[in-house]
């Protein structure tokens, strides 16, 4: 029985060579008579020539199965041709030997020597005492594929750098076919491609604007031509947070929910972080569509010595994608006490789909009893100012030295979404597209997400309601909205610009 298949052993033992034509028909498995004429030369191995690299030659073993000795084609013999004649092979008389000589001009030719009479008698005696069983004939199919993808010479050749780079990005035919399949309809909101070329033009304009805005320090902000207006807007936000966010944060302790957790949607560069620090929050989640602004907000948070409080930041379009796309599930496992959207919610009212996605992100992770607060332009006032323009006006715009609003059309059509205008505010907003938020429609839509309004007031009304309260009166002076004598730091145009905004607060109904 032939020995078990051993690829390593057979590859070394049968390191192949290119056979010559005169031995192409030689069959080593045919039994050879021990009584053959000693003068008849026996061809036992092919002529040695150039080593083959064909894979079929590597896998096909034509040496006798019972060959336990080193053959003429062994690796050792090829590497050390000067060691002399090889050992006798199986099926050959012991007194016969092969003399292999190598010449540069032609392949070596094996030469058989005639044995002496004494050697013949010794061999015959040895054969009678130790008969060699004939080898078992086995049916073997040589490895010789017909439909191969690569040439035989390419086997075991290292790939070039170009080939390696190609296979790194290679996509097979099967994967390409899968990509061509039509996606199943999904109930989730359509994901928005992160590449700028795939974003809507208006969205990219907003992102580019806020990313380009510099993050200046406190001293430089005081040099702004509308510093009084910015301070007043911050004061209104402080009133909202104090009146509605502080009680919600305290209520979280009594109701057993995780207390002090705030979601700042549209965080910008982190302008409200100081307000949240004074509210003694324990955890902040801040997201914004402008990636540069988020990086600057995170740097501001880290520099504010608030490392004892947890904070998570994410770049996300909250009007298109779920909050879970940018914020880890573990962070969202506990609900928020407060969700804040300051001067950014109006971008969602381009379409009803965006507005619903925004409200879903607000309500889904807001605990019952939690509050949703924010600031938006006053759509009713903007429409009234538009309608007050003469019918023959060349431009559908209005404003003053501080701000300017320009509508696409002279009259507002039907529908609650997609009413676009361009807004310009000195040293703040550089003519970016915004959308009207009609209050009654907003309230009705929010009710479908379990949100009920608890506060709605124009900025001048907020001022009238809280300017005489001791806490907020002192805050007006500290924030330099007014001086010690009560004189406002804003001129008439800045007051006019402030009055186009409203503040609101909603509470999520208990289940």
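^ Assign residues to that structure.
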């Amino acid at each position: 029985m032939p020995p078990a298949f051993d690829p390593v052993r057979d590859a070394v033992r049968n390191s192949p060579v290119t056979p010559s034509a005169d031995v192409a028909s030689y069959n080593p498995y045919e039994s050879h008579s021990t009584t053959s004429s000693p003068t008849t030369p026996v061809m036992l191995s092919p002529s040695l020539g150039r080593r083959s690299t064909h894979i079929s030659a590597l896998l096909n073993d034509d040496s006798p199965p019972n060959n336990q000795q080193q053959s003429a084609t062994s690796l050792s013999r090829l590497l050390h041709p000067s060691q002399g004649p090889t050992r006798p092979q199986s099926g050959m008389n012991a007194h016969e030997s092969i003399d292999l000589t190598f010449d540069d001009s032609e392949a070596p030719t094996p030469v058989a020597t005639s044995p002496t009479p004494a050697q013949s008698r010794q061999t015959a005696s040895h054969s009678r005492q130790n008969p060699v069983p004939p080898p078992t004939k086995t049916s073997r199919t040589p490895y010789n594929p017909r439909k191969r993808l690569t040439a035989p010479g390419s086997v075991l050749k290292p790939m070039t750098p170009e080939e390696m780079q190609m296979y790194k990005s290679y996509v097979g035919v099967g994967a390409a076919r899968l990509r061509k399949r039509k996606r199943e309809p999904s109930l989730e909101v359509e994901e928005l491609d992160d590449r700028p070329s795939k974003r809507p033009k208006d969205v990219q304009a907003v992102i580019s604007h806020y990313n380009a805005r510099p993050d200046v320090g406190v001293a430089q902000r005081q040099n702004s031509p509308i510093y009084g207006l910015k301070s007043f807007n911050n004061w209104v936000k402080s009133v909202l947070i104090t009146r509605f966010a502080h009680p919600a944060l305290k209520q979280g302790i009594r109701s057993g929910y995780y207390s002090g957790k705030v979601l700042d949607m549209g965080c910008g560069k982190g302008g409200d972080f100081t307000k949240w620090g004074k509210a003694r929050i324990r955890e902040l989640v801040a997201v914004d569509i402008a990636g540069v602004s988020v990086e600057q907000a995170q740097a501001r948070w880290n520099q504010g010595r608030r490392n004892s409080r947890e904070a998570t930041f994410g770049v996300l379009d909250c009007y298109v994608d779920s909050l879970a796309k940018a914020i880890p599930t573990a962070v969202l496992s506990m609900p928020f006490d407060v969700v804040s959207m300051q001067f950014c919610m109006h971008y969602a009212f381009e379409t009803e789909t965006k507005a619903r996605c925004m409200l879903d992100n607000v309500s889904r992770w807001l605990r019952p009893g939690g509050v949703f607060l924010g600031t938006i332009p006053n759509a009713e006032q903007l429409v009234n100012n538009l309608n007050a323009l003469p019918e023959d006006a060349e431009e559908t715009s209005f404003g003053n030295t501080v701000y300017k609003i320009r509508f696409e059309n002279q009259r507002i059509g039907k529908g609650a979404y997609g009413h676009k205008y361009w807004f310009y505010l000195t040293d703040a907003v550089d003519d970016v597209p915004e959308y009207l938020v009609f209050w009654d429609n907003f309230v009705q839509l929010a009710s479908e997400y379990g949100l009920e309004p608890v506060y709605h007031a124009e900025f001048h009304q907020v001022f009238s309601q809280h300017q005489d309260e001791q806490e907020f009166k002192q805050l007006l002076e500290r924030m330099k909205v007014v001086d010690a004598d009560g004189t406002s730091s804003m001129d008439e145009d800045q007051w006019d610009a402030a009055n186009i905004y409203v503040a609101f607060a909603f509470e999520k109904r208990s289940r």
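The chain has a mean pLDDT of 76.
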